[in-house]
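A further point concerns the way the authors explain their paired sequence and structure data. An entry of this sort, consisting of the sequence and the corresponding backbone structure tokens, reads as follows:
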Amino acid sequence: MFQTIHSEGMTVAQEVRDYLKNKPYLLEALEKGIVNLSELSRQIRKELRTDNVVAVKAALRRFSEEQRKHRRKREEKVLQLLKKSRIAVYDGKSVVITDKQLEKENEMKVNLAGKFVYLMEKNSLAEISDAWRVHENCTMIVIHSPEELEATPGVVAFLTALLAEQGINIIEFISCWTETIIVVKKEDSLKTYEILSSAMD
């Protein structure tokens, strides 16, 4: 097989891959098979300043097939993991963001170099007077997974994309060892639970 050599000794195929790797929206479209390869080839040809649209389209088709296979394998592993996971729901939570450390021993805290994010019970808010931002009446959804979660890429991306596609806004997201914690507004909690349960079923 002959390869077309373009700038700096790179093949057109290599240039196409380099062009696409920093464009996540195009990668997702290619993975889902929802992009017009001929039109995209013409656009990439202009960007790469090459006249060989045939080589660009061939490289794009090969890369697209590889991406779809990779996506299927990745999602299969994620779904296998989620099927071995269990889900728990906790209502009456609040998210508090402040620049001061609070005297809250039993609440969940994340220290972000000068900012503190607390996940606490709703009835604890009365003691707080100067928070930067407070999200009241939230629901915390915890996914308990096997230890293989740590070594399984794509779990966070899968879950967040799944919820985003259904219009669910995530207030806070924490992934820690075997626990994945998703905080949403209470009005979104039932829909979120149903979406996640369906993926884990």
User: Anything to note?
Assistant: The first strand starts at residue 86 and ends at 98.
